[in-house]
Design goal:
The protein has 126 residues and is mainly α. It is built from 6 helices and no strands. The two termini are 25 Å apart.
Length: 126
């Protein structure tokens, strides 16, 4: 049986765009506002939405605006949560959000867990 070769980590453009969109929604901004606040052109943001990679300067500006490391958008990335599952990370992040009270964070957490359980593609561990 051949082992799969792993190449260099690939940049995940869709993850960057999703993070930008989530932050845009959280801050109640338009894409034009994101362009102005990040210093990245609207055309670059449009290209990102089409799956095209940003140039290095735009990537630096966007990740600085997000207050995230560019490593978060690489295929084999380390997380600030160690090896915690994404679901665990989300739960923790929701509870750290200053814009959510305890009840709101718990409600979102329940919705995400229920949706995750319904949509997950892997079987339960034995």
């Amino acid at each position: 049986m051949k082992s799969k070769k792993t190449g260099p980590p690939q940049f995940d453009v869709s993850a960057l765009h999703a993070a930008l969109d989530s932050e845009r929604v959280a801050r109640r901004l338009t894409w034009k506002d994101v362009s102005g606040a990040s210093g990245v052109s609207a055309s670059t943001l449009t290209r990102l939405s089409q799956g095209k990679r940003p140039d290095v300067d735009s990537l630096a500006a966007l990740t600085a605006w997000l207050k995230m490391s560019a490593d978060r958008f690489m295929g084999q990335r380390a997380t600030a949560f160690g090896s915690a599952s994404p679901l665990t990370q989300i739960s923790s992040i929701l509870r750290e959000d200053p814009d959510l009270n305890e009840d709101a964070a718990a409600a979102l957490d329940e919705m995400i867990k229920a949706t995750y359980a319904r949509l997950r593609t892997t079987k339960k561990p034995k």
